[in-house]
Structures are given as C-alpha cells and as structure tokens.
Amino acid sequence: MSFGSTPNVIYRRIVCRYQVRVATSPESSVNNPTDLGLPPLFVERLRRILPADRVDGCLDTFTLRPHAVTFRVNVLTATVDAVLEELADEGFEVATMVWPEEAYFVPGHQRSALTHCDACTQGRIYVQNPSSMIPPVILDPQPTDWILDLAAAPGGKTTHLAALMGNAGRISAVESVKGRFHRMRANLERCGVRNVSTYLKDGTKVYRQCPEQFDRVLLDAPCSSEGRFDVQDPASHAYWSLKKIREMNRKQRRLIYSAVRCLKPGGVLVYSTCTFAPEENEAVIDRVLEQFGSALEVESIALPATAGNLSCGVTQWGKAEFDPRVEHGTRILPDGVMEGFFVAKLIKGESTED
After folding, report:
1. Catalytic residue among 58, 120, 262, 274
2. What are phi and psi of 94, to 5 degrees?
3. Mean pLDDT within 57-73
C-alpha cells in the first residue's frame, strides 16, 4: 500500500517556529470512556487521531484476550523448516503469517510454553510482534551497509537487521540505559549475531563522533507505548499522561536530530514508535524537516495489504499544522495480532554538515 508520491512543491511554513503542544479538547465524543478500563483522555485523543470508522475496532483490541503470540524464525541459527518441525513435535499450534517473512504465531494460551521452549531460549526463534518487524524491513539493509541502530535495546530489531544482512556488513547498536544494554548484548549472543558492535552511549550525542558515517539509520524511539496498552494489565497504562508525552517528544527530537546528522548523504532513516500520539510521531518528523530543510524528504512506504490495518499520517493536530509530507508516515492500527505502531522513512539528499 502506498500513500502517494512526495510533493514537488517546496513547503513554506505558516508558523516560523513550531513548539509542540499536547492537544486536548474540552469536548469529548466518547461515550462512557471509563467503562473501557483505559485513561479517558487517551480514548478521547484516539478518537481524534484515527479515522472515525477505525476507532471502535482499535479500542476492541485492547480488551481482546488472549492475543496470538507472534515470533520470527532466526535464520542466523536455524532453518525455517527445522524450527517449524521442532515446534510441531512439541505440540505448538503454529500458523503462518502472510507477511512479513519468517513470521508465525501460536494461540495466546501457548504464550508461556513458547517463551520457555528450547527454540526460544536457545535463539532459534525471537518472540516479537509483527509490527516491530516492519521498521527493519522498510530500512532494507544491504550486506555491504554500515547500519546505526539508535536506541537499540532490547535488540529485537537489531537481531532482525543482522538476519536480513546475513550477518554481513556492520551494525553499530547504541543504547544509553545500562540494564537494557546488557539485556541487548545477551539477546545478540543468544541469537548468533556476529556483525554488531554495541555501545553504551547517549544516542543524542553520537553524531558528534560519527558525522555522516552510516548508510542507513534505524531509530525505534522510546515512547509512551500507547500501542501496547492492555486493559487486563493496568500497569501498561498506569503512568500514561500528557506530561509523559511531552517528555518523550523532547527525547525523540534530540535522537532524530542525531540520527540525521549521523546519516550519509543519500542514506535512509527509518523512524518508528509504538504509540499513537501525533506529538511523538508526526510532530517529530515535522520538526526535523524544519531543521534540515531541503536536505530531507519523506518517502511513501509501500506495504502489502496483508501488513494489517493502516492509516496515513495526520497533517494537523490541535492548533499545529504539520508539513504535508508527514502524511507519508504510516500508522499501523492494532487488530488483535499487530500492535499499534508508527513508521516513517526519510531520505537524506544532501550533506547537513557546515
């Protein structure tokens, strides 16, 4: 699925400087949002973010249980046929996803058994939502590339990148949180990854040491995780707030600035989050387009219809009007298998160095 080509007309901003504001409204179209078991303001905002005909279906997924458990076969350590045979012998009811490749799922009641089976603990499979598999596929890493995976922990996308590259090329995986960093290293080792160098560093400062060195950059940014809310797990949304959204936006803007500065001219940057908030998605892309001007373009993302329930980026949120090119971002809506996600693909056409 494609949302059209990049506009040729240079976008001129009406507002010279955009400062992100979390949009709220005194009016609500939500009927008894407290009955849903989710923060009422989150539900109200979701009704303004998504197309009207998609909202109720999306809200239903937060209460559906048990969700199917999806995983990716790790082709660095095993073949697909061998893994599927192993799981079948152990009684798993494995079903094939049409897309992405090497993605499969088992019924929700088999979650615990799957995460404790030998194939999982020994790295032949990686339990991962298919929405999380989309950013590495969109990045399309090549065996000769040098990839930067910024904010890389716990390493699911890093291992996927390594698999797509056949353990060739180079990946630099950066994580700033010590506990998450060591978890990532353990995952990489378990999955037989050999083309990754890991760095315990602040991703917002990497560009100072590595200006315009990388062929491709993946930034799966820390976010408010709205796409993973679960009515049965109050802890999943207990700390959600407008303040947290603002805090995440500040982190994301610093990270994407670093990501662009690290990218070679002609390189590709994929930005993703597992949240719905425009402040953490379109507003972040809008800001970086303003900062780097004609050096960046947003490329439309072509995904098959089997990738799930999709909607394009919003160009207006509250009083903010975004660069029209943010519409090329793709919001993946939850459907009981896919989690909520946002993905945007940027191309760096020219150097951003002075």
Report:
1. 274
2. -85, 130
3. 87
